[in-house]
Design goal:
By secondary structure, this protein is of the alpha+beta class. The chain folds into two domains: about 140 residues, Lipocalin, CATH 2.40.128; about 350 residues, no CATH class. It contains 15 helices and ten strands. The strands form two sheets. Strands 1-2-3-4-5-6-7-8 form an eight-stranded antiparallel beta barrel. A two-stranded antiparallel ribbon has the order 9-10. About 0% of the residues have low confidence.
Amino acid sequence: MELADTPGQQLGDTLRGIWRWTLKGSDAGLEGLEHQPLELFLDVAQRGRAIRGFLDTPERLRSDQQPRYRVVGDLPADKPGTLRWRLFALDDGGQLPRYECQVVLDEVWGEFGNAGPATLNGRILRLDRPLALPEQDNRFLASKQVFPEARERTALSASLVEWLITPEHRLFHQLWHASRDKWHKLAKDKHQALRGLGWQPGPRERERDARGRHKDRNGSGEDFLFMHRHMLGAARAIQDLPSWTRFPLPQPELERDRQGFARYFDNQDGNALPPTWLASDDDEYTQWVRDIKSAETFHGNFEVWESRYSDPQYLSKLTLGQFGSELELGLHDWLHMRWASVPRDPVNGMPVPMARTPDDFAGRWYGAENDFLGDPFSSHVNPVFWRFHGWIDDRIEDWFRAHERFHPGEVVRVQVNGVPWFAAGRWVQVADPWLGPDTHGCSSVPGLRPGRSVEMDPETMKLALRIIYADEERFDGLLRKVPRRPWYARHLKVRQRSL
């Protein structure tokens, strides 16, 4: 079995998508397509070596009509930047190629082209023209359609975005996750410092870390589910935010479903997967991002989770804390990274493959353009965040119904801090889910916002984050030179495939 090697897979990732095609030269033209705006649809299987596509007007490619030209080619093993493919005219049966395209993938974009713009150029040769005749001046230039972000297709309302991008909200979401995720690894003096700021994860001296030895037995899973339900309720009071009813399917194959392919790469519903990206100093991470976005991972993991977390028999065996912890450390982190776009500097748009460092609080990161799903500082600004967190929240109701079926009356509904929740008991461990200092702080000093303590002030939260990450900066800045992966990617691995 021959599959594309890593450079071939990365070339396939670049080629796959929609290209705007412009004819150039004194003899420019394709029979039947003269003087019209054209588009090229190209598809390459995830680890395949073949190129397939269609060339025609944008309108015809998206209609029920047969395209005028079919593209057939392959990825060369010897010269990865140079390609050749044939154009088969489908109006005469598509049995014989009419043109050959000699194609060069431009490298002018450099790092800016990482999961972004790309251009192709080349010559078009008519295959029924004798080689003895002078070569025609028939050329083309193709530019790749940049992936439309979810915020461009299904934007959140201006009032909701205004709330989500405030320093208070961004820092709260980052710090809430960081305190729980890092608590089990922090030294005792850091524990005391965070307690002094009101940012210990849960009650003092009985904190509930999310990734330590007791993560599935200490109630941290309940904190995870409760906080996000509280967050959803507040956001849905501003804007209707429907949940996913199922996980969006992978990209349709072009030759099976051309119109579906177009809808996918146009990202019409805002749920299409953003393209994978390259991390120049971390080949393992580059491959991991590619793998988590693959159709194989969808069918091997996401569809299994979709089944398991709607199975009453499975859910009835889990406490709420166990269920929440399993969701958070598995499916949740994978959702964030599968649907993440390449992180970019909000000022100049340059890719930042390893994302913002957790203690970088420069003003440029607070803009609405920073909605990278791989960082809790920014993930909640992305419209997709609310769809999959809505799906997770809906599974809490599946969990409740499962216990009603197998253990009727053992889980009791109550209101906790204005959130529909469950009373502590056999299947629910925590009576006071953690929402940060609002529920477990102790300061009586008023903060900048009316009704909130100083513990919720941005500068207090920045200080708490710097305390958490202080060890990572101990060596006089040397550690800054070591690439660090986005937050939700730091704890995940994709199991290696075997053939």
